[in-house]
């Protein structure tokens, strides 16, 4: 009927752990709408565990305890009804058999048929008696029944004369009975004598009655599951977290501490993310995989809004606060699917005068302490990757300075079981050198020398080490002073981690593969011949990609009002491009976008509010000229943040110095300074309009 399916056949010796892993795989595959495990399973496997390992929302057999349990409650419904009981009820409905007010007897109490069909008949207002093999006077109970459902698994258990004239009989049984007149030596009989048809007004045949209905209901459950999935995933659910406003407004940390955020699993559920598409880091943060972009590739993008600002004072003018506040307003007060995308704060400014970057007042990302500190470790991953590059560059210079070509060759291409091989990354180096050789043994001595020697100019090593702390005494340092370094000391220093080129690469990467390519192209030094030396030349690109494999996934958080936020990447705008990541914006735009095939209207399209760092003359222009060119995305609107304080400063007010009290000009009315400062805002409006 058009249902795509995969028939997974497993060896009967499979162990429970391996089977669990296979079930996890299909449970977490959003393209799978139904899962059936064919029973019975081999004796060494736990049937109950297997049945309950299937997600209730994919349990199209209807065997999961959650689905069975909901049958006993009138106020709730299961994800799926068990197929055979559902088939029994469907037969009664299709033939317009009255159920409400009738006496129904169910013979058999199995979890698969008897018990569920008894509960379903009860929910349809029948008066139900559930019988089994040990029920006393079972014959009398059946004789009084208007509807009889038999699923006891015993051939012809219910006799024809038990059936009340005019009763309706649903025979679920399927039993092989010896019959020498048949070619197979047996014939199929039900749990009710076939001659009961002469007394019943309706009776299902065996075979050809309930069996085909079971199959039909199974297929219906799969279709129902698919429809439910597409309907639920078509729109993100808007569940605001109510704010409790106080006057006077408390401090940021007091506001953040007083609000109880939603569990991140709930936020992910509201976004219709599958279990495989997010990985929780504690209760309130999670990593979201890039697979979401592929799954929602047919969706249109939501509306793309960029928040920038006039040239700021050193104290910052509140772009993050406006970004978060605008997203909260659209989400919680206009009921629009809305995402905010912001940069991850550096611990340097967090522990300095500027402080954190989670927003302010009632417009914050929460939990603010998690956001402003380690979060999910992306900045630490960049620190490790950056410093690995630094160590590799210095080590390569040292070894080239102290070893012969043959020694270097043996280290780079050692013999393993008598055979030398190029690592994959080495082929890029060979291609750059114009050497078209497949194996190390083919290289001439001159080619070996060119291959093994990068010729790093120690005075032109441009790569510095980093740490995510403002430590002024590490800005300029001398390294290589140990006796083992043989006098190869040099001047270098530390930058802050977010100033690393790897941070800029992370923000601009569009996929893991793209990030790897960009990491490989990073220039770390110049050769003595004036040629740029890259991470690919060093042979370290793969190691960097492994260190960064989790950092490529954006971190999901929420605002104080419960709207979703992606916190990802944090390059500075004065030395890099000052914007959060492309992948975060792309995932967010797909999540709030319109499903394929639906018209895009102002009513059904969601919003992504992303922040461009620093003033519009730096962050916004780099957003347009660098980030948008790399991503292919175009903003639909821009917001320019301006403050009276910054306008006064640009109008000629005294310098604003972090850590010093503001001058009187900023705390008292001064319309002259304010008016003159509008020249700055006017220019930013002109630039953004262009």
UniProtKB/TrEMBL annotation:
Protein's UniProt name: Tetrahydrofolate synthase
Organism in which the protein naturally occurs: Linderina macrospora
Lineage start: Eukaryota, Fungi, Fungi incertae sedis, Zoopagomycota, Kickxellomycotina
